[in-house]
Amino acid sequence: MKLKSAWLVLLLLLSGVSLAQDAAPATGEATLLLKVMGKGSGRILKRAEVKFGETVLMTDPQGQVKVPHGEGLIQVSRQGYASVFVDRKGLAGKSEYSVYLPPGAVDDSEVVITGARKNEVSRKSISVRETERIAPGGDPAQITQLLPGVRSEPGSTEVVIRGSGPNDSRYYVDDILVPSIFHEIGNLSIVPSPQLDNVDFTAGGFGARYGDASGGVIVLRSKEQLPEENRTELVVNVPFYAGAFHERRLSENSAMAVSARRSTLEAILPRVLEAAADEGFEATIIPFFHDAYGRYIWKDENVRYRLTAISSVDGITLAVPSEDSENAEGTFNVEFRDSYSILALEHERKLGDAWRVRTTPQYSYARTKANFGTDKVYLNQQGVSLPTEFTRREGPGRSFVLGFEPTYSQVGIDVAAPLPPPDDDPYFDFDEAPKFQVRRDFKVPGFAAWAAYDIGFDAWLVTPGVRAFRTGLNTETSYDPRLQARYSLNKEDSIKFAVGQYSIAPEPIESSGEFGNPDLNYERSMHYILGWEKNWSERWVADIQGFYKKTIRLVSAGGSKNYQDTGDRLTHGLEVFLRRNMTEKFFGWLSYTYSVSEDRKSESAPRYVSTYDQTHILNLAGSYRISATLDLGLRFKYNSGNPFTPVRGSYYNASFDKYKPIYDEDKPYSERLPDFHALDLFMTYDDLYNEWKMKYQLGVQYIALAPRVGQVSYNYDYSKKEKAQGLPPIPYIQVSASF
Amino acid sequence: MLKKIFLFLSLALLGCGGGGDRYERIDRLRPVLVEVNPGPTHQAALSDADVQLDFHFISSDLTRSLTAQVVAPLAAVSRFEEAGVTSIDVQDYPGLRHFVVHVHVKVPALDPGPAQKLAYALEASDGNKTLRVEGDFLAFASADDPLAAWNVKATEIIEPTVDQAVSLPRKINVKADISNPQNEAVRVGWLVSDGEVINRRDADTEWEVPGPGAYTLVYTVRGQASRTAAIRILPVTVQ
C-alpha cells in the first residue's frame, strides 16, 4: 500500500515538473533555452533551480530548461553553488543563454569521513580531496611522508616505515606492483592525481593479501567511476616539470585517460650552474624524470575491465670535482637512470550473488643503469604475474578471500666494477682494485597464495589469514600466519590489535651465487601492534598505536660471501595520530611517533642503533579555506637527526695516495645529526572562467626556523668535520589550466 | 637499494672536500709517498732480504723537525723480522720542507709462489701533530715473476722545466713524462706550495697560482700493480 502511494506521489511530482517545463511553450510565447553549468569547469548542472516570478523549473539531465521571454529576474541556484540572477530583459531576442554558477560559500557544517573502517589495524586511507589540500606539492602519494611511523629524508621521497628500510616496503597502483610510486623530484607520484581516488597506507600488520614485505604497504587507488565529462589539464611547475592530462568518456560503459609529464630541470639547471660556476660552485647535478600513463576502463553492473599502462623514468647526472678523477676536467661523474614500464589488465567479475573474482595479469620491464666514473652496474628485470583473488561475501561483516599469484621474472646483471675482496683487506681500494666484469641472466619463478576470513560477531571483527610464498631465489617456502582483530567498546571507541609474520626475500644481487650469498634465507619479521581508536566527535578522531617488531635473518654486507644474514633488528614505538576530519573550511592532522630501532650483527654481538632509527617524528599539517577559490596551508616537520658512525681518526694509505677514515666500529651509529625541522607554507588560488579555470599553487618548502644541518662531511684527511647545511628553502609555483 | 646508494654517493661527494681545503695545496705536515728500494726485484732470493722504505713527508712549516717510528699495521700482522728508522733527511724548497724518513726492514724468506703483499706502518710527528702512514709493497719469491720487472720510477717533470722563470697568466701548464714500459695503470698526483691544480690526477694539467713569487711543485707517481713509486720536486719562480 505504502509502495503504491509512493509511486503515486512520485508520478505526480514528475508530472508536475513536466507540466511546469511544458508550461512556457504552451502559452505560445517565444522561449529561451537556458543552459546551467558550473563556473570554472563547464560541468553541466542538472536539477538546478530556475525561478522567475512564481514559477520554479528544474534543469534536465543536460542542464537545460526552457524559459519564456519576459521581464524581471531569473534566479538560478543549486546546492553548493552561489545563486546567479539574470535580467530577462537583456535576453530579449536570444534563443539560447548559458548561466555559469560560481562555487558557493565555504561550508563548515558538512564533514567528510573517508575510509571505511577496515580491519587492517595500521591502515590509513586518505582521499585525494584531502591530499590535494595538504600533501607536499598536492600530490596524493606524498601524503605518506606526513603519516605516523614514517621517516622521510628532506628532499627525498623514500620512506622508512617503523624502522624498516625503503626496500622492505611495497608499492602498488591498485593491484599492480610497481618498483616505486614517487619521482625523486617535484613531489610527484607516477600516477596523475586526477586519476586517483585515495591512498591506502599500512605501516605494518597488514593482511595476507600483501607479502614479500616486512615494512609497510602503500597503495594508490584509482577512481572506479567513469568521468561524466571530458577533461584536459595542462600544468607547469616552476622549476620542476610540465605535463598534460586528458580523460574522455568514450561511451556509456567506457572511458580513457592519458597523461605525460617531463621534468624541466635539465633545461634550466645547466644555465643556473654555469652562472654558479662563476661564483665558485663547481659541481653539476641534474636530476630528471619523465613519465607516461594511460588507462582504458570498461564496466557494467557485473564486469569491469581496466587496462593500465605506466612508464616512468628517473635519473640524475652528476659531476663533482674529485680527488679521484680520471678525466681531464678533474671531476667524478655519476649517471644514474632508473626506468620501468608496466602493462596490466584488471578484470573483475561477479560470480553469482556471493562470489567475485578479480584477476590482473601484468607485464613489467625495469631497468637500472648506473655509471660511476669508469664503472657500471646495469640491472634489467622483466616479468609477468597473475594475481587472482576470489572474494565471497557471506553477510554483514563476513567475507572470505582466497588468492594466488604466480610470477616469473628474468633478471639480467651487467657489472663492470671492483668488488671487495672476500677477506677484510684494509688496503683494498675501489679505485685501484682490478675490475670485475660479468654479465649474467637468471630466471626467477615464484608463487604466492593467501587466504583470509573476516569474521564479524557482536562487537568483534576478527581476520585470521595466512600467506605462503616462494620466490625461486632460494629453496625455502615461507608460511606467514597473520591475525587482525578489532573490538568496538562503544560507538566512539575501538580496541584493535594485530600479530603476524612477514617474510621478505633477499634482493637478487644479495642472493646471487656470483655476487652474493646463495644461502641467504628470507628476512623474517614479527609484528605486534596494539591500538586504540577514538572518535571524539564527528570532526575529531584519534588513533594511538604501540608496535613491536623483531626482524631476524637480517641481511647485511659482510662475511665471506659479501652478504650475511646472521643479524637481527628490534624496533618498538608509539604513534599518536590526531585528525580533524575534512570540512570545506578546515582539515588537518597532528602525528607523532616515538620509536627505537636497534641492530646487531649476530646473537653474541652487542646491539647498536640502527641506521633507520629515528627517535622522534612530529608532523603537523593543515589547510584552511578562506573562500571557495582560496586555500592556505602549512606543514611543519620535526624529527631527530639521523644516526651516523663517527670517524675517530684517519691514516694515509701510501699505496693509493689517499686518506682513509678510521671509524669508531665499537660505537656504530653512535652520533646523530642535529634534529631536523622544516616549515612549508603554501596557497592555492582558483581563477575561474566560464568553462575552464586556472589554478595557481604557490609555496615555499623547507623553511628553516634555525640553522639546519643536512649531513656531516669531512675534509680530505678527515681532520676537520663539517656540518653541511641542509636543503635551502625552495619556492615553487605551479600553474595549471583545466577545461 | 642501488638508487639509495647513488643518491648517498652523490651527496657524499658533494660533501667531501669541505672547509676550503684543497688536497694539492700543502698547508701543514703531510705524508706524500713511500718508495721501496732497491725496487721490486729485491726479494728474489729465498733468503732474508734487506729493504729500505723511504717515507716522504712535506710540510709548509720550515721551522719544524720530524720524528718517526715504525708501528704495527692496523689490520695486518707485520712480517718484518727487523724494522726501524735509520735516518731522516731534510731539504728546503720555496714554501715547503721535504723530509725523507729512511726505514730499514728485513724481509724473511718467502715460500715459492706468487708475489706477496707486505704491509707496513709508520707514525711521524712534527711536535704538533702525529700522522699515521700505512701501505704495502710486493715481495717476490722469484725474479722470474713478470711483475717483478715493472717499474715506473723513471719519471720527470717536463713542463715547467728546471730553473724556468714562468710568467703570468695565472694558469701555468704542468706536465710530467712517465716511463711506463709495461703500460701499467698508474696514479699520479700533483702537490703545490700554493695555488690550485685543475686536475691533480692528470699528468698534463694546469696550475693556477695566486700571483708572482717563488713556489714549489711536487709530482708523484705510483704503479697500481707493482707498487713502485717516484717523486720529483721542482722550485718554480713566477714573475
Characterise this structure.
The complex is a heterodimer of chains A (739) and B (239). By secondary structure, chain A is mainly beta. The model of chain B is unreliable at 1-19 (pLDDT under 50). Chain B is mainly β and 239 residues long. Chain B has a four-stranded antiparallel β-sheet, with no helix packed on it. Chain B has a four-stranded antiparallel β-sheet with strand order 8-10-13-12, with no helix packed on it. In chain B, strands 9-15-14-11 form a four-stranded mixed β-sheet, with no helix packed on it. Classes of the chains: A mainly beta (739), B mainly beta (239). Chains A and B meet through β19, β20, β22, β38 and β43 of A and α1, β1, β6 and β7 of B.
The value of Rg of chain B in angstroms is 19 Å
Low-confidence stretches of chain A: 5-28
What percentage of residues of chain B falls in helices of 4 or more residues? under 10%
Structural class label of chain A? mainly beta
Count of discrete alpha- or pi-helical segments spanning 4 or more residues of chain A: 4
- Supply the helix-strand structural class of chain B: mainly beta
Q: Strand-residue fraction of chain B?
A: over 45%
- Report the total helices of chain B: 1
- Summarize the helix and strand pattern of chain B as letters: HEEEEEEEEEEEEEEE
- Describe the global form of chain B: globular
**Strand segment tally of chain B:** 15
User: Low-confidence parts of chain B lasting 5 or more residues at pLDDT below 50?
Assistant: 1-19
Q: C-alpha Rg of chain A, in Å?
A: 29 Å
Tally the beta strands of chain A. 45
List the strand order in the largest sheet of chain B. 1-2-5-4
The helicity of chain A comes to under 10%
Cα end-to-end separation of chain B: 54 Å
Terminal CA distance of chain A reads 49 Å
The biggest sheet of chain A amounts to: 25 strands, antiparallel
Greatest interface: A-B, 57 and 51 residues
Determine the mean pLDDT of chain A. Answer: 85
